[in-house]
Amino acid sequence: NRLELPELYSASRININITVPQIRNSFSHRAFEIPACRGFLLSDYRPEAESFFELDSEIVCFRTYDELRDKTLYYSNHPEDRKEIARRGYERVIAEHTYAHRMQKIVEFVLR
After folding, report:
1. What are the two backbone dihedrals, phi and then psi, of residue 15, each rounded to the nearest 5 degrees?
2. CA-to-CA distance for 13 and 79, rounded, in angstroms?
3. Exposed, middle or buried by CB within 10 Å (0-12, 13-18, 19+), for 16?
4. Domains in the chain: boundaries
5. CATH hierarchy code of domain 5-111
6. HSE on the CB side for 1, CA within 13 Å?
7. Residues of the chain with confidence (pLDDT) below 70
8. pLDDT for res 22
9. What pLDDT, on the 0 to 100 scale, is given for residue 99?
10. Strands (DSSP E) along the chain, which ranges?
11. 34 near 52, Cβ under 8 Å?
């Protein structure tokens, strides 16, 4: 149920995002929804992530399954680091990546 997702994202220690192969040159909406709910995001690496977030400071990415395992273990055992990253991710999304921000960019583009 999508109405329960914000609570789930917020309550989870680690939210793992693996982008479907069909999304080749984009970044999943979950990458914004999870931090917006004050959740900790551990996502597969996409180059686009670097244009939206400061990696390892606002969200954490992995490139291999070994790295996914290692980072999951690390952040499971370091709750303060995890909470601080989630806080910074939330602040970035609220400051720059809400639907209102996207609509403003669309309006600016159309009016050019």
Report:
1. -105, 115
2. 8
3. middle
4. 5-111
5. 3.40.50.2000
6. 3
7. 1, 21-25
8. 64
9. 87
10. 15-17, 41-44, 60-62
11. no
Residue 3's pLDDT is 76
Tell me which residue has tokens 């602040």.
Answer: 91
What are the structure tokens assigned to 47, written together?
Answer: 């180059």
Sorted by sequence, the CB contacts under 8 Å of residue 13 that are 6+ apart come out as 40, 75, 76, 79, 82
What amino acid occupies position 51?
Answer: S
pLDDT value at position 98?
87
Would you tell me how many other CB atoms lie within 10 Å of the CB of residue 13?
14
pLDDT of residue 96: 94
Q: 């309550």: which residue's tokens?
A: 11
SS3 assignment for 40-61: CEEEECCCCHHHHCCECCCEEE
Tokens of 21: 């192969």
- Looking up tokens 């900790």 gives 40
Long-range contact set of residues 44-53: C-beta below 8 Å, sequence gap at least 24: 44/17, 44/18, 44/19, 44/68, 46/19, 52/27, 52/92, 52/96, 52/97, 53/89, 53/92
pTM, rounded to two decimals: 0.88
Cβ(89)–Cβ(58) below 8 Å: yes
Distance CA 54, CA 34 (A): 15
